[in-house]
Design a protein that fits this description.
By secondary structure, the protein is α/β, with parallel strands linked by helices. The protein is 35% helix and 24% strand. Helix 4 links the parallel strand 8 and strand 9.
Length: 288
């Protein structure tokens, strides 16, 4: 049985740790290079599983050692990998991550096999799932998110969580079915340029009214989280013991939130649990 059906990207992460980000034209020597598992969809599916819910991931990898490593790592975390396809025409997606001494990061993603995911297959997965929560992230691509959200609306999926980061111009129906639509403050301002000067719950309210989402969650990093829905509320941040690496903190937040909703918690409780997971995530290196 699946509690949360996750549709999203699977990447091999290559992380460079350096003192600072390179300026245009500047070469910076990395102090350390690491190779690890990643991808927003895969990270979120692992977060769901670690939070105690049954996760099934729909995604794609290449027919290469990196792809096998990603699938094996997901299976070891208890994620159902039967819906992951293997592409013979594209390599496994790769993310190049730069982490500086403050813990902040910069990421460039090569989609690779993620771009081969078939919208029709995604629609079929969503139409037949018994999961109570569908979790979508925009790194999978606009066509995939729209296909999945549309199928969920048709099938009456109880809850659809849409993490539209990076912000994509998704179909109005995809944004309307989101409960919640999860974005960070920068993505929220892309979503609602007329609200560029707003912050906190005012910004979350503006995004919800602009796109008709059932609820909106806007993360503000170390400041906190704003919720706009049946209840509008600001959540102060959960302090992290140390900030070692912010990579994957948003995925930990979203995956834990989705798992909590699948267990029947309120959205307010799910946000707080997601914050606690994000705070733990930033205290450790790597996307998971």
């Amino acid at each position: 049985m699946t509690d949360v059906l996750v549709i999203g990207s699977i990447n091999a992460d290559v992380t460079f740790r350096s003192a600072h980000f390179a300026a245009p034209g500047e070469t910076v020597v990395a102090e350390q290079i690491t190779h690890a598992t990643g991808g927003k969809g895969a990270n979120q599916a692992v977060a769901v599983a670690r939070a105690g819910a049954a996760a099934r991931l729909v995604g794609a990898v290449g027919e290469d050692p990196a792809g096998r490593t990603q699938v094996e790592a997901l299976a070891a975390e208890g994620v159902d990998t039967d819906a992951i396809t293997v592409s013979g025409v594209a390599p496994t997606g790769t993310a190049f991550v730069v982490v500086v001494s403050s813990g902040e990061n910069s990421i460039v993603v090569g989609r690779g096999a993620n771009a081969t995911l078939d919208p029709e297959r995604v629609r079929a997965e969503v139409s037949t799932t018994t999961a109570s929560v569908l979790l979508l992230s925009s790194e999978a691509g606009e066509a995939i998110v729209d296909a999945a959200a549309g199928a969920a609306a048709d099938a009456g999926t109880p809850r659809v969580v849409v993490n539209n980061g990076p912000w994509l111009p998704l179909a109005p129906r995809s944004l309307a079915v989101a409960d919640p639509l999860v974005v960070n403050e920068h993505e929220a301002r892309h979503a609602c340029p007329e609200a560029a000067e707003l912050s906190g719950t005012d910004l979350a309210d503006a995004v919800r009214h602009a796109h008709g989402s059932r609820s909106v969650v806007v993360t503000h990093g170390s400041d906190g989280v704003a919720l706009s829905g049946d209840l509008t509320r600001w959540f102060d941040a959960v302090p992290a013991s140390v900030v070692a690496d912010t990579t994957g903190a948003g995925d930990a937040f979203v995956g834990t939130l989705a798992a909590a909703l699948a267990r029947g918690t309120t959205l307010e409780q799910a946000v707080r649990l997601g914050q606690e997971a994000g705070a733990r995530a930033v205290s450790r290196h790597g996307a998971r």
